[in-house]
Amino acid sequence: SVPPDAPSPGPSADRPAGPSIPFRLEANINSLADLDAVDPASIDGIGLVRTEFLFLSAAEALSEERHVESYRRILARVPGRPVRLRLLDLGGDKALPGLVEGGPGSLLGERGIRFLLAHPDLARLQARAILRVAAEGEVGVLLPMVTLPQEVAAVARLFEEEAVALARLGVPVRCPPLGIMVEVPATALTLDLFADAAFFSVGTNDLMQYLSAAARDNPAVAPLNAGSETALFRLLAQISAAARSLGKPVAICGDLAGDPEAVARLVALGFGDFSVAPSRLSALRALACPPVPVEG
Ligand code: PEP
Ligand code: MG
User: Fold this and answer.
1) pTM for the complete prediction?
2) Residue of higher predicted confidence among 135 and 286
3) What is the average pLDDT across 237-258?
4) Which residue's CA is minimally distant from atom 8 of ligand 1?
């Protein structure tokens, strides 16, 4: 049931009547085409941009201007609302021919932030593009596949260095808040060690596959993932409690957030921010309060 101090849903002509659970609803964006699939008036922001899917070739991914252009288009779609740009989550199941190949063992290998820290030129290029657009809108940065606090510190240093270099050239920049994906079990169990992260976003797709040791892209073991729901929810309860004691915002941006039944359980665990695929927005909107009004 809705707590007594919950914001009451405002009138909305196109919103179905029914019980309303208070939470923020955001969109996951995988491509610029996804932007068109989203009614900006219906979302509180963009909770996850999978930047690794925005670029169709290595040449595009290696163009700072191309990054800036894409991010500007995304920001322009939801003016005044937060946009979380995730650093390139390459490796694992995500290949970009000419830059990163997938391969056996890659799900446990040099993927996400591990790959970027091993390829600092690419990380710095993306950091520069983000620093530039962060001066123009409400940008947060999500670090994928974080395992240790040192990885967050290394990325923060890299952003600071690039910010100083750009500012010296007279380029307007802003250092955006750095948050982390919670999708490695070691991270989920030690959230208290990540007090330097500005916010958390739980990647239930990866968290689930690493909990059950069943690859997310292998249908033969899919029942093991589905069957490990109890383990996942126990860990999610811990994550919610740990984030609350740190006083940090925590969202869920994995596929679980797009399942209305799961969302009712997640709200009961204290989660209040869900970022979902455009195709899941209407099902979730039917449960949620209206978008938080934009200020200003
Ligand atoms: C996840 O792992 O749940 C997630 C949101 O990231 P991706 O699906 O892109 O790995
Ligand atoms: Mg993931």
Assistant:
1) 0.91
2) 135
3) 98
4) 205
What does the alpha-carbon distance between residue 88 and residue 226 come to, in Å, rounded to a whole number? 27
Q: Which amino acid is at 22?
A: P
Query: Which residue CA neighbors atom 3 of ligand 1 most closely?
Result: 203
pLDDT digits (tens, 9 = 90+) for 151-167: 999 999 999 999 999 99
Distance CA 121, CA 152 (A): 17
ipTM surpasses 0.95: yes
**Strand pairing partners for 100?**
96
Compute, in angstroms, the gap from residue 11 CA to the centroid of ligand 2: 36
Show the tokens assigned to 99.
């830059």
Percentage with pLDDT > 90 across the chain: 81
SS3 293: coil
Name, in order, each residue with C-beta under 8 angstroms of 281's C-beta and a sequence gap of 6 or more: 25, 27, 38, 39, 42, 43
Give 34 Cα–ligand 2 centroid separation in angstroms. Answer: 18
Residue nearest to atom 6 of ligand 1 (CA): 203
SS (HEC) of 152-221: HHHHHHHHHHHHHHHHHCCCCCCCCCEEEEECCHHHHCCHHHHCCCCCEEECHHHHHHHHHCCCCCCHHH
